[in-house]
Amino acid sequence: MDVPDLKIYPKALVCEESNIKGDVIVSAGCVIHPHCNINAENGSIIFGENCIVEEYATISNKNKSPGNYEILYIGCNNVFEVGCTVEALKIGDKNVFEAKSIVSNEVEISNGCIIGAGCRLEGKQTLLENTVIYGNDCLQREALEKQGSQILQIDYLRKLLPNYHHLRKSNYDPKKIRSAV
Amino acid sequence: MANFMVESCVKFACSCGILNPLSKLYFCRHCLKIRCGFCLCHEVDVRFCSNCLENIPSSEARLNKSRCNSCFDCPCCHHTLSIRATSAQVARKSGEETPKEGDAADPSKVLTKKSYYLACLACRWSSRDVGIPDQISAKGAWPENEYVYQSRFQSILEYYQNVVIQNKQEKQEMMRRKTLKAHKFPSLTDRTGLNVSMIRRQIGWPDKNTPKITKATVTPSKALEKFDELPEKMFTEKLNLRNVTTIEQRHGQPAHQPFTVNKLYPQRKNLCIKRSLRCRQCEHNVIKPEYHPGSIKYRIQLFAAYHVPDVWLVSCEKPLKAGVLCQAVLKLSNPTIHDMTITIMDLPTQDEEYEMMEDLKKSFEKNFTSLITSSSTALSTSSFSRQTSITEDPRLVSKKTTADMKMLESSFILNHRDDSAEFDELAENPTVKDEHKFIVSRKSNKVSLKVNFTPNGDLVAGDEVIIGFTMQYTYINTVSNTPDKKEPQQHALTSRVYINMGRIPE
Amino acid sequence: MPIYDSVMQEKPPVVLEIGRIYTKLGFATEATPRFIIPTVSTVSTTEAIKSLFNYETNNEFYDLVVDFFQMLFFKYFLVSPKDRKIVIVESSLCPTIIRETFTKALFRHFEVSSVFFVPLHLSVLSTLAVETALVVDLGYSEGTVLPIYSGTQILKAFQAENCGAQIIHKEIKRQLMESGVSEHLLTEKVLEDIKARTCFVTTFERAEQLRRGESVQHPPDIDYPVKEKTVIVIPGKLRETAFEVLFSIESNLSQMILNSLTYCSIEVRQELAENLVVVGGTAMVMGLLPRLQSELLQDIKFSPYAEKLLLSTFKIHKTIGKANFTSWLGGSIYGGTDLIITKSLTKEQYSKISRVPDWINLEDNCAPAS
Q1: C2-124+323-365 is classed in which CATH architecture?
Q2: Are A121 and C228 an interchain contact pair (Cβ–Cβ within 8 Å)?
């Protein structure tokens, strides 16, 4: 299962069993769990640093206009929890997509947002910074308190995951390329 | 009991006339009648907090307005808040206190101070959002939001309490003056106005009459002529919808009902209860839960499913046609440890049903009179509140049968439940020699029977076909409520069963 | 008050105000209700959630009421209803069927010891400690006006119009649908939320300008996410004008008050006009009171009120606590006094007559034939 367009930076952790299609760049510090779906067949997806993509999370670039080739930029420190479906146009930094949440393809996510477990987000909109979506009715509120960082979790996963899963080798090192040039 | 969550097609009529599946019914073994949630008396048994599972006695619950002392609900999404700990490094002030032995080793003179705050895991609200300072202890004294009008309300309440008492005293005074003293002999002092108090006053003794309550006063509210106009920014500034509370959030704290989210404070968690159910007729408990909040067991559990034979619809000949004889297989099972003799009979007619309702009403009244006579005669009837016999009226069964069922010609025996037999493969069913024709099969405590029924001729497509019958069964009561009879008594009980066979197809 | 302490400590009476949409509930002598909950009942047989007053037959209503009270006692009050005293705050003109059904359920099903009906408008006065006031109650389906003089309700001056939340919700819906929002998004809950969070009553001057058709700089629009589905724009005009229906020709709050005053005798009008109280959930909206006052002062200048009423000032009381539970608070005060013992309908009385004595019933309202 070789994906030609997958670029993995050093220090990124991508499990062998992950399901990645299309042109995807995984930056340093990311952790991609097994059995997640990353679909970049319609357009490439770029992960920023220190993102976590958990099991059964589906991230796809659903850009429908083929002429306008758009890239799905995902910022740093995002967490995609188990079973979430994210098709957003753009994702900023420090967002959390909780388990089973669904974000449709007309939404732009800024920074520090939390899409609560099981919440849906549809319709054309841009989420303001630090928005929390929660509850049955998908109510919105503004988080005043800054979210804790994911570094501890990432460190833990970096230790644990290699013990139980085969990993993909990092195949792209900007430093090496630069030195080669 | 497999169909606990789904709507069952077999329903039993409670003695009050409401239909329920057997799993929702109870059995009072003192009246030997089926009871349902509607005709039982519900009582609050134990109060507890659903989060910390602490048992809270009623006096304490009243004191705390039936809220938990240590658990909080999120004011934003009403989820339970959890207490989170953080540790902050605090530089010790130099001249504050003499360093203790352990601290002396600490060269940087830095203390790690643990502090606690409340956070909601559902909507990520935290007590820091509204500026509540972190607490030093986990059970910290979280600030209560003071209610501004509390003292005003208290003074008004006291004023009215006084007014009412005063009125009452004045009325009594009036009555006393109005009623002529019915002395047998005219009293000289009365006529001359030289009554006791007068004499006392002449002698110089203090007045014996209790002093009147001083007239209570309260400042009445003043109506205002000037009001705060709407702030100008209302018309110009953009409203941030995320800062405005929803109606549910406002009603979550009725005293304050804040308009903006920065005034949402954590709410003490509301308690939960366990209830006990009591038969209204004999006043015996039907359900009594265990005292401990963590336990889901019962001290008394008289579910009907443990006492009344259950009926299942196994199969039914399809399609159902109006006016055409149909066959169905029913399965009966015996939950008790005694053999039952079962007779399937016709449902009571409407007149009989009315009669049953009358009987039920009468039995209530009889019960009350017996209660009164048995209680000591010193209790005057008016003060004995139980004497007033107003209770729920029994009802007619709301479902009408839409098919005519052929009754079985004879009664049959339903074997008792034997849990050990289920594991014993060798134990053969004792074959009953003269097995009735309508019995399809028998297995341990279950019997399958064939029944024939004819859906009414006037049914049209889409109508439900409902058959009904009265099932008479023998029940052996092991706990007798009369102490002199030790022997278990056998009773013939009946219950009305309604089965929905399905709809007439289009 | 040693007597009260002992009585209250035993079993504090339960006070209920069952509104069309929200029910206020708590215990007597407490300064705020414990809960404000939607007046909906979960039908025990089908588990369906239904509005309490949305019934077809009387029997169905009875069952809904039983299920509703069951929920109140075992989910909110957490006390056994048996042998408890109940205070219900209700309009004096509450339909007999509602009152009868409540009483029947409470006595027959829950075996309470007594029920005390407190007239809603009268109870408001006790929270202010005044004897005379003109009480305006703005609920969901209607707004009612009842003047009270020296503690006596002037029933002939009672006024009711659909000045309630319902008509405002309708107006919001109409305006939003005009601006192209599809109807299925605008459920009653969404409309209520829009009303409570974004709308307000504008000032008198701006309203005059709007009435004359002059263009006014409306407040900013708001993006409003409707659940997860979509985001709609709430125009600033809607925010400002949604409540204008309360001052329109069809249902006019100030004219309703003035009409009521004209039915009162001339001696009491001045005092009533200087003692207005506005209660009910709809009264909580920002800017209502100053606007109402300006409207009253404006309407009084014109016919037919100018000739009939010679009033120049209107004063409005500030309620203690929030306006949506003021009448409940009155019930809490009534339930905290000795009246709960003397004026209640007890179980014994009810078992004899099997109905609620009511002022409207001649049997209770006539002097006994001697």
Answers
A1: 2-Layer Sandwich (3.30)
A2: yes
Average pLDDT over residues B339-352: 85
Tell me what pLDDT residue C213 has: 86
- Are B77 and A140 within 8 A, CB to CB? no
Look at C321 and B239 and tell me if their CB atoms are within 8 Å: no
- Please name the residue of chain A whose CA is at the shortest distance from the CA of residue B128: A145
Interface check C223 vs A, CB under 8 A: yes
- Domain map (residue ranges) of chain C: 2-124+323-365, 131-162+251-308, 165-246
Tokens of A140: 């919105």
Q: Which strand (E) or helix (H) includes residue B72?
A: strand B67-73
> What is the chain A residue with the closest CA to C229?
A122
For residues A138 and B376, what is the distance between their CA atoms, to the nearest angstrom?
Answer: 63
Q: Which residues of A touch C223 (CB under 8 A)?
A: 125
Collapsing DSSP to helix, strand or coil, C120 comes out as helix
CATH topology of domain C165-246: Actin; Chain A, domain 4 (3.90.640)
User: Domain-by-domain residue ranges, chain B?
Assistant: 10-25+304-503
Handedness of CA A16, A19, A21, A26 (dihedral sign): negative
Over range B214-240, report the average pLDDT: 80
Does A22 map to a domain?
yes
Domains C2-124+323-365 and C131-162+251-308 share a fold: yes
Lowest mean pLDDT among B215-229, B400-414, B491-505, C252-266: B215-229
| Interface contact flag, C31 B150, Cβ < 8 Å | yes
3-state DSSP call for residue C46? coil
CA atoms within 13 A on the CB side of B457: 0
C-alpha distance from A130 to closest chain C C-alpha (Å): 16
Look at A122 and C225 and tell me if their CB atoms are within 8 Å.
Answer: no
Both tokens of B160, joined, read: 């009215």
Lateral strand order in the sheet of B340-345: B19-20, B10-13, B489-503, B464-477, B340-345, B412-414
- The answer to whether the CB atoms of B161 and C350 lie below 8 A apart is no
pLDDT digits (tens, 9 = 90+) for A70-104: 788 999 999 999 999 999 888 999 999 999 999 98
DSSP letters along B178-232, please?
HSPP--SS--HHHHHT--HHHHHHHHTPPP-SPPPPPPP--PPPPPBS--PPPPT
> Residue B484 above 60 pLDDT?
no
- Work out how many domains chain A is built from and give that number: 1
Q: Counting beta carbons within 10 angstroms of the beta carbon of residue B20, is it exposed (0 to 12), middle (13 to 18) or buried (19 or more)?
A: buried
- C131-162+251-308 belongs to which homologous superfamily? ATPase, nucleotide binding domain (3.30.420.40)
Please state the ipTM of this predicted complex: 0.89
Does the CB of C227 have a partner CB in chain A at under 8 Å?
yes
Hey, are the CB atoms on B240 and A142 less than 8 Å from each other?
yes
User: How confident is the model at residue A95, as a pLDDT?
Assistant: 93
Q: Compare all CA atoms of chain C with the CA of B275 and give the residue at the minimum distance.
A: C74
CB pairs under 8 A between B and C: 192
How far away is chain B from the Cα of C256, in angstroms, using its nearest Cα? 20
Whether A145 is in a domain gets the answer yes
Joined together, the tokens standing for residue B198 give: 């007068």
The CATH number of residue A107's host domain is 2.160.10.10
| Alpha carbon of A166: minimum distance to chain C alpha carbons (Å) | 39
pLDDT tens per residue across span B28-76: 888 888 998 888 899 999 999 999 999 998 888 888 888 998 899 999 8
Which segment of B179-193, B330-344, C212-226, C289-303 scores lowest on mean pLDDT? B179-193
Tell whether A133 is covered by a domain. yes
pLDDT tens digits, one per residue of B136-191: 887 767 877 788 888 999 999 999 998 898 888 888 888 888 776 666 665 555 55
Q: Mean of the pLDDT values across residues C320-340?
A: 91
Contacts of B220 in chain C (CB under 8 A): 128-131
- Position A1 in a domain: no
Diameter of chain C by CA atoms? 72
Q: Which pLDDT score, from 0 to 100, does residue B101 have?
A: 46
Look up the domain containing A31 and give its range: 6-180
Q: How many CB pairs under 8 A join A and C?
A: 21
- Stretch C78-101: mean pLDDT, rounded? 91
With CB atoms and an 8 Å threshold, state whether C80 touches B251: no
What CATH superfamily classification does B10-25+304-503 receive? Immunoglobulins (2.60.40.10)
